Automatic annotation (TrEMBL):
<dbReference type="GO" id="GO:0016020">
    <property type="term" value="C:membrane"/>
</dbReference>
<dbReference type="GO" id="GO:0006970">
    <property type="term" value="P:response to osmotic stress"/>
</dbReference>
<dbReference type="GO" id="GO:0005524">
    <property type="term" value="F:ATP binding"/>
</dbReference>
<keyword id="KW-0029">Amino-acid transport</keyword>
<feature type="domain" description="ABC transporter">
    <location>
        <begin position="7"/>
        <end position="268"/>
    </location>
</feature>
<dbReference type="GO" id="GO:0006865">
    <property type="term" value="P:amino acid transport"/>
</dbReference>
<keyword id="KW-0378">Hydrolase</keyword>
<dbReference type="InterPro" id="IPR003593">
    <property type="entry name" value="AAA+_ATPase"/>
</dbReference>
<dbReference type="InterPro" id="IPR003439">
    <property type="entry name" value="ABC_transporter-like_ATP-bd"/>
</dbReference>
<keyword id="KW-0129">CBS domain</keyword>
<dbReference type="Pfam" id="PF00571">
    <property type="entry name" value="CBS"/>
</dbReference>
<keyword id="KW-0067">ATP-binding</keyword>
<comment type="similarity">
    <text>Belongs to the ABC transporter superfamily.</text>
</comment>
<keyword id="KW-0547">Nucleotide-binding</keyword>
<dbReference type="InterPro" id="IPR027417">
    <property type="entry name" value="P-loop_NTPase"/>
</dbReference>
<keyword id="KW-0813">Transport</keyword>
<dbReference type="GO" id="GO:0031460">
    <property type="term" value="P:glycine betaine transport"/>
</dbReference>
Length: 419
């Protein structure tokens, strides 16, 4: 995550209904949303919510229907006015802004993409994308230029003159996205933006958003009730529980491997963790020898000290060359050979830090040896033990784990090894 904060929310509340401030004492007494509704006629939609969103971060807010997601995202651009709290964008509280300041923020800083596209039916695709620029007073030539390049960005070149109803749902949402991106906002607010799309198109749009974001580096706030979508898109995920309270904020891996409470646990129990958890999170440090500097003596000493029978060999740039085994280093020592070159064994399983551990399961069953983690330049980062992979997917508390294992064994056999 980028550490520079773009949006900071402090103790935010939204209470719908007459005279909402009188609800605060009831909240302090710990009354439930239902009790408060009965007593006061007010609905607590967002309840004392605080969090930060980093620049360039895709921050997903997820929760079940009625948990307050839409209310929360609408507070961010004040489509809904919060009852209490602060919303700082680049350090400025938008709740203190007058109409003119707010207009500017909505025009240049924040853009919203809606679930049902919100296109104007009697305008062409191009005119729809231009519309937001038009009301911000931009001259015709500039806005056409910006609209065209924005349509190009979302893959709609050639559809400028089409009418919205001539396009599929996925394409209409691309128009919605192009419109939101046209004035190059710093923050993109996406409210269930893909939820109305067919599953296949939805997956495609998610992939495209990831590709776009890799180029754009915007701050994206994405609302969804779909956990798979949240896990796929989010750098971090906020899980909103009933009554608009935060249950957990964390990276997809943190939420899957360490759910904060039973509510989050219930959410994540059916997820196949091995597809989400990556090599980097179960990687350990591993000792290495440098082929340019270290000989058999050093290698033997290091292995003996750590009670290991093999050690990783790298070059001076820490690029992985292979491993050497203790029997061989001892033999070379006796023969007074100085270089490890002749005993270097380069048939080593490797994985990238971002590889999902599911991809390592076959290897985990196939070999006792640790897996070497190397990046795209071949630089050695650490090792993953076969046991760690299996432990991660067979976590007793996780209903998904044993299923994965047994399914895997059914398909592949376990090679007669104990697991
Ligand atoms: N204008 C309103 N007046 C009164 N209550 C409201 C209003 N808007 C939302 N609510 C209530 O606030 C709570 C949160 O609603 P919100 O729409 O933010 O939830 P959500 O998580 O986005 O749900 P969904 O996924 O169904 O849209 C709900 O109990 C809802 O009934």
């Amino acid at each position: 995550m980028e550490h520079e904060v773009k949006i900071k929310i402090e103790n935010l509340y939204k209470i719908f209904g007459p005279n909402p401030k009188r609800v605060f004492p009831l909240l302090e007494q710990g009354r439930t949303k239902e009790e408060i509704l009965k007593k006061s006629g007010c609905v607590v939609a967002v309840n004392d919510v605080s969090f930060e969103i980093g620049k360039r971060e895709t921050f997903v807010i997820m929760g079940l229907s009625g948990s307050g997601k839409s209310t929360l995202i609408r507070c961010l651009n004040r489509l809904i006015n919060p009852t209490a709290g602060k919303i700082l964008i680049d350090g400025e509280n938008i709740l203190d802004m007058d109409k003119e300041q707010l207009r500017k923020v909505r025009r240049y800083t924040l853009s919203m993409v809606f679930q049902h596209f919100g296109l104007l039916p009697h305008r062409t695709v191009l005119e729809n994308v231009e519309f937001g620029l038009e009301i911000s007073g931009m001259d015709k030539e500039t806005r056409r230029e910006k609209a065209l390049s924005s349509l190009d960005l979302v893959g709609l070149k050639g559809y400028e003159k089409s009418m919205p109803d001539e396009l599929s749902g996925g394409m209409q949402q691309r128009v919605g996205l192009a419109r939101a991106l046209a004035n190059d906002p710093e923050v993109l607010l996406m409210d269930e933006a893909f939820s109305a799309l067919d599953p296949l198109i939805r997956t495609q749009m998610q992939d495209e958003l990831l590709t776009l974001q890799a180029k754009m580096h915007k701050t994206i706030v994405f609302i969804t009730h779909d956990l798979d979508e949240a896990l796929k898109l989010g750098d971090r995920i906020l899980i909103l529980g009933p009554g608009g309270v935060i249950r957990q904020i964390g990276t997809p891996e943190e939420i899957l491997s360490d759910p904060a409470d039973d509510y989050v646990k219930a959410f994540v129990q059916n997820v196949d963790k091995s597809k989400i958890i990556t090599v980097s999170s179960i990687m350990r440090n591993a000792q290495v020898v440098n082929i340019d500097k270290d000989g058999p003596g050093t290698a033997t000493r290091l292995m003996e000290k750590a009670s290991m029978d093999r050690i990783v060999v790298v070059d001076s740039d820490r690029k992985l060359l292979g491993i050497v085994k203790i029997d061989d280093t001892v033999r070379l020592q006796k023969q007074k050979v100085k270089s490890l070159e002749s005993i270097l064994f380069d048939q080593v399983y490797t994985a990238h830090p971002t590889t999902p551990i599911s991809e390592l399961l076959p290897v985990a069953f196939d070999s006792e040896d640790p897996i070497a983690v190397i990046d795209e330049d071949g630089v050695f980062h650490g090792a993953v033990d076969r046991g760690a992979i299996i432990a991660e997917v067979s976590d007793e508390n996780d209903d998904g784990g044993p299923v994965i294992l047994s399914e895997f064994i059914e398909q592949n056999g376990n090679g007669g090894k104990d697991i």
